[in-house]
Amino acid sequence: MSENPLLHLPFAIPFDRIKPEHVEPAIRALILEAENELQAILGATPRTYANTLGALDHLGERLSQAFGVVSHLENVCTTPQLRAAYNTVVPLVTAFYTKLQLSEALYQALRDYSTTPEAQSLSPAKSRYLELMLNKFRREGAGLPPQQKERLEAIHTRLSELTNRFGQNVTDSTADYELYLEESQIAGLPQTALEAAQQSAASKGKRGYRFTLQAPSYLALMNHLDDPAIRKQVYLAYQNRATEEGRDNCPLIAEILALRQEKARLLGYDNFADYVLEDRMAKNATTAQSFEADLHARARPHFEREMQSLQDFRRQLEGQEAPPLQRWDIRYYVEKQRKALFDYNAEELRPYFALPNVLSGLFELCGRVFGIRVEEIVGEAVWHPEVRVYDIYQGDIWVARFYTDWFPRESKRGGAWANGLIVGERDGALEPHLGLNCGNLTPPVGTAPALLTPREVETVFHEFGHFLHIALSNVEVKSLAGTKVAWDFVELPSQIMENWVWERATLELIARHYQTGGALPEALFQKMQGSRNHWSAGDTMRQLWFGTQDLDLHVNYNPARENLLDYLEALQREFSPTLLMESPIYITSFSHLFGSPVGYAAGYYSYKWSEVLDADAFTRFKREGLFNPQTGQDFIEHILSKGNSVDPADLFRGFMGRDPDPQALLVRSGLLG
């Protein structure tokens, strides 16, 4: 057991030594260790910060770190053996944390401490932590009678099992699909996509062009392939992921929704959305739904005009008898129309967005704005050869380390994300934070570096914004550090970073031709700017549809009475009679909502909510200077460093001097009026 690396995780995690057979013994041992820590808190007397609230802040810390590493490896390089080990320990970890949340004795220990003189004179961050934890125990049911607690424990365990299986079904279904095309079938595809497809085929020992449902491959087909029959085939495969026999997520979704609703009612709430949103900025489902409805009312007329314009454009190309647009046509004709209107094709910009240069320019930008220094380090153990490792410094102080893993693999889940692995100590000696950025960007082909589209560049900036929130966190309570904030606030630090991608001054740093080193030509920059809001209403409506269905499923839908897909079909027709890109069946692969017990469930509106915050906050940078270090320091002071130690509404007011102005988002998106 002493040789088990998960039991003694150093800051430089030995990813190369962690094996599936280490998982269960380590997690069982660390659960026992955490149980002993719990008993020490319960038996402590007299009540002090150190033996009660401070001990709770560190309770199960080694368990959390080890399980976080195992979960991460399951996400980025799963194997049948690792998955089996992971699936074995998920119920064990869930049971422990559920027991913790429902502990009446621990709840009472906190209440007893809250009445002490020491508790009345805590620092603001520690006082907020006490308040939040008392509220959390109430909200999690620590005061419920035993029979209801027992039912909550069963619900939590079952939700962990179901949501874990949901995510694994999506990963497996995505990985299983492949499509080989011949020369006669590839018309319209850009050279970068063809080279990547040839490389993918060669990796399987085959000739031709191999395409998958990983984002870079799928989007190349949907945006550019001329053959509508193949686009339809691939579209349906993508939308219908995790619906096949043995992996059908529909019954899982129905059970997940029923369990979430039952949990909310056990805890005294009308619905799961009201339960989840009580401690977020929106506070309740009605506010979130009103927010979505207001944006929907503003965007829908613009969207309907965009769709009519797109259909008219197709008729101009193909004649008045051109058939109505289908879902698998929309991306294709949007790109053709963008090219026709602005003489712009995102593929033209790829040579200027080589990932190594994008990263070095991003780090330079953050140095100017936030006063940090990023240095790549070598020799650290990693989970895949493509992974890179970096340290972040503020002045001479080492504040964080992070890993990057940017390219798709069959053993890796889709999407892009940032995670923390170790929260550094801030209540005493300064310790660095540890985390990561992962994505599924266009991979390098041959000897060329990875060449990105502007949207992929936005993804890199976005995820690094999340990590900055972790890296620059300076909160004395670990449980309030970094991204452990309200979910409708957490996207502000990430989404605000995307704004810089569209600024000429930033492009001078990140956009250099990978072969010549030449800067992005002014003509291309103007095309990029001119086309920025092309299809902005369509993109907005797509996000609003996701948010609307999410809230509706967690407020109004009754899985015992209504078929899920029939219900969503009717809801989508009500939301917009005009065709949207995603069909309702996409819900079976919507991991944001069903890939974890809570996640973004009843919270997908957060993306648009945070867009209001980031669009407004960026106006200060525009006004005071894109690289103004004082504005950057203020953003660190009021947003990035504070974690959840201050109410998020107060944090925003601290930076902007007022409440958010939704007008800024409408202006940026071209949806005003």
What does this structure look like?
By secondary structure, this protein is mainly alpha-helical. The chain has four domains: 5-143, Glutathione S-transferase Yfyf (Class Pi), Chain A, domain 2 (Up-down Bundle); 177-239, no CATH class; 250-320 and 330-344 and 535-604, Neurolysin, domain 3; 351-529, Neurolysin, domain 3 (Orthogonal Bundle). It is 58% helix and 6% strand. The protein has helices at 20-43, 49-58, 61-76, 80-101, 104-114, 117-120, 124-140, 146-176, 191-203, 215-224, 228-239, 250-266, 272-277, 285-318, 327-342, 346-349, 355-370, 454-471, 492-500, 504-510, 522-530, 536-555, 564-575, 591-594, 606-624, 629-640, 648-656, 663-669, and strands at residues 179-181, 209-211, 372-377, 388-394, 397-405, 417-422, 433-438. A five-stranded mixed beta sheet has the order 3-4-5-7-6. It has a two-stranded antiparallel sheet with strand order 1-2. Helix 1 (20-43) runs antiparallel to helix 3 (61-76), helix 1 (20-43) packs parallel to helix 4 and helix 19 crosses helix 25 (606-624). The protein is globular. 44% of the residues are buried. The mean pLDDT is 97.
CATH class of the largest domain: Mainly Alpha
**Count of DSSP E strands?**
7
End-to-end Cα distance, whole Å, is: 66 Å
The gyration radius over C-alpha positions equals 25 Å
Output the CATH topology of the largest domain: Neurolysin, domain 3
Percent range of helical residues: 55-70%
Cα shape: globular
Strand content: 5-15%
Model regions low in confidence, pLDDT < 50 over at least 5 residues? none
The CATH architecture of the largest domain is Orthogonal Bundle
User: Counting H and I runs of at least 4 residues, what is the number of helices?
Assistant: 28
As for the number of domains, it is 4
Strand count, sense and closure of the main sheet? 5 strands, mixed
Overall mean pLDDT stands at 97
Question: Largest sheet, order of strands side by side?
Answer: 3-4-5-7-6
**Which structural class is indicated by helix and strand composition?**
mainly alpha
